[in-house]
Amino acid sequence: MAGTVAERDAVVSAADGHLNNSLGSPVQADVYFPRLIVPFCGHIKGGMRPGKKILVMGIVDLNPESFGISLTCGESEDPPADVAIELKAVFTERQFVRNSCVAGEWGEEQSSIPYFPFIPDQPFRVEILCEHPRFRIFVDGHQLFDFYHRIETLSAIDTIKINGDLQLTKLG
């Protein structure tokens, strides 16, 4: 295996942009990793396809109202890009709603969940797994719901947008 033990065990802390090894001591880095700033917009290389997973890790703000994660077909604002899935955590209603927007028309919003998984000032891990007929949404390792595709060309889903009352710590 290439690299020293320190290099192999190095992890990125998005909070400060520095590399640390498993013991917490600094490791010299050739690249500075910028903070994951909210609102965030990033490219999904190659678009979505069955078997592909998107990971969003962060910390909910102390007094949150809401935050959203959207997978879209490009970044266009005018005309607006199609939204394959928009996930919105609404703290006042303790809802995790989802919807899509195709050709400028929003579909039927879905909101039923077995429990509300987000806690103010606490970390979370959202995984969006793309399968052939649907997205499977996991929060902190527990499957929360499925959302069936309303966009037929999965590879066109190539952008992730994140906004609201959270800090991002990792995307993958």
TrEMBL record:
Pfam families for the chain: Gal-bind_lectin (PF00337)
Alphabetical UniProt keywords: Lectin
PROSITE patterns: GALECTIN
CDD domains named among the record's database cross-references: GLECT
Superkingdom field: Eukaryota
PANTHER family registered for this protein in UniProt: GALECTIN, GALECTIN-RELATED PROTEIN
Name the record gives this protein: Galectin
Organism for this UniProt entry: Emberiza fucata
